[in-house]
Write a structure and sequence with these properties.
Layout (H helix, E strand, L loop, with lengths): L1 E5 L6 E5 L4 E5 L2 H7 L4 E7 L3 E5 L3 E6 L2 E5 L6 E6 L3 E8 L14 E2 L24
The structure holds zinc ion (ZN) (2 copies).
């Protein structure tokens, strides 16, 4: 598997090769605050399978040894490293892939911190675009 991705403005581009070690929805508060979103989908690759193709990222130390890498121009969260807990790995934000369909998450993690209304959204009405549109 060879996949490319990048931030919304296009300044930062990356490539991953090989198979992900795991892919999951993370519900922890750090991820939610960082993304400004109720959940973040991650896929972990070996650092040796990850390459930055262009651009410079900014890095924010969100807690402990957690390092969140994002585009300094458009703010897109891109990847995460943690040498204490995930040595040798890079977690990429699946939604930044050109083809996010390629890596379906296989688990929900950190559900102890999940927003309660994210537990089951199956009864929430859906609209192809906007209601009444
Ligand atoms: Zn950008
Ligand atoms: Zn998290």
């Amino acid at each position: 598997m060879k996949l490319e991705g990048g931030c919304q403005c296009g300044d930062v581009r990356y490539r991953v090769e090989g198979e992900p070690l795991h892919a999951a929805f993370c519900h922890c508060e750090d991820c939610r605050k960082s993304a400004g979103a109720p959940v973040v989908a991650w896929a972990a690759f070996k650092s040796s399978d990850f390459e930055v193709l262009r651009g410079e990222v900014a890095v924010y130390n969100s807690s402990g040894s957690a390092m969140r890498h994002f585009c300094p121009r458009c703010g897109t969260g891109l990847w995460y490293t943690n040498e204490a807990y995930l040595p040798g790995l890079v977690d990429i934000q699946i939604a930044t892939l050109d083809d996010p369909e390629a890596l379906p998450p296989g688990a929900h993690i950190q559900v102890a911190e999940r927003i309660s209304w994210m537990t089951d959204t199956t009864g929430v009405p859906e609209f192809e675009r906007y209601p009444g549109g």
